[in-house]
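It is worth pausing here to work through a concrete case rather than discussing structure prediction in the abstract. The textbook approach is simple: state the sequence, then state the predicted structure, then interpret. We follow exactly that order.
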Amino acid sequence: MQTEQRRRATTEKVIGDSSPPLQAAAGSFAQGNAACGGNGELLSCGYETSATNDQLLNVFVTSVGPNPERSECEAIMRRTATTGSVAGAKIRAVAIYQV
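Step two, the predicted structure:
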């Protein structure tokens, strides 16, 4: 009897590019994406921010998750008010794929 050797699944972490800087105006948003280029199955999404405390004032991460096709992760942050806000915060998505 011959048995096939099973290939062990591995994971890959993909960190997307930083978004353009978030503006100081209320209602502005910044979005980051991370994709594996079609090589693998999306397992998990996350995000990283790059900002000072003042740049994060009145900012909330409103969405982190896969796009409708489950081909990449999207991370979005929005500014809710202008008072005391400083432009410049950035976000980038992080994706974990099974390859």
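Step three, interpretation. Residues 23-98 form one domain. The mean pLDDT is 91.
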